[in-house]
Amino acid sequence: MNKHIQIIVSLILISVWSRAQIPNNNFETWATTNGNETPGNWSNLNQITYNSGIYTCMKGTPGYSGASYLFLISKTIPGKGVVPGVAVCGEIDTITYKPKSGFPFSNRPQNLSYFMQFMPYDQSDSSSIKILLTKWNQVQFKRDTIAFGESYFNSMAHEWFYNDTYLDYFSGNNPDSAIIVISSSSSIPKDGSYIYIDYLQFNGNVIGIDENHPDTNSISIFPNPSGETITVNIDREEEFPIELIIYDSHGKLAGRTSLSNQSTILNISAWKKGIYLLTLSTKKNIITKKLIIN
Known about the structure:
Elements lengths: L2 H12 L15 E4 L2 E4 L2 E3 L1 H4 L7 E4 L8 E5 L1 E3 L3 E3 L2 E4 L1 E2 L6 E3 L1 E2 L6 E9 L7 E11 L4 E12 L3 E10 L1 E2 L7 E7 L10 E10 L15 E4 L6 E6 L7 E7 L4 E7 L3 E5 L6 E8 L4 E8 L1
């Protein structure tokens, strides 16, 4: 079987979704707290900023999917400096801005997918998404790291697009807890950096710890979904040209082209609606991204 087809078939097989629920994963559940709507099951830093009449975590409407989305923004707070917009699926430490706990979770997903928009103040700042899977060690009385994943974004995207954050596994055990942290800024936040997030989902299933995954975070496709044109950006050193092969959701070859530089615009208006897998064969590895055509 062709190497590319083998990879695509494998991706389709592991794309049987891990259905363990992320609490309030599409941000449709909100409650009024300290005069502002906050997302259910997600803690944030509004509790230390609301006395100044400022909020770093807010409800945005309409969502990519449904009525609302999560809106995080870094703000200057009198006496505190710039406070980042941070949301934790679990509990947050309001002193360190770091997570204290997560939610019960026992699956081994390949990645976390979501739809997003973002705008850092400048390229010295970056929005981020981080995932940590852990298991309580009853012998050593500590938490063992099962898997970790993170993505950083320091450019801009003003339309909804699909993205994945892949997990690296360090243990063959199943976790008992997951933490998801979304932040509008890095450790040195800049006033005005923001990120929109909606429709979080864990995907796939990882059996061992030696499974390789592509470095997908270095390549972005936007807007995603799209029906007219897409831009393929490659955010790392590469030797061009790079072959781009497109498959439909059944693994059938749908087309191929060649990328000659780090930013390429493709016309997809003639493609049928549906889900496509775009595979780029670089000198370093084979990278696959999902594209939704609407």
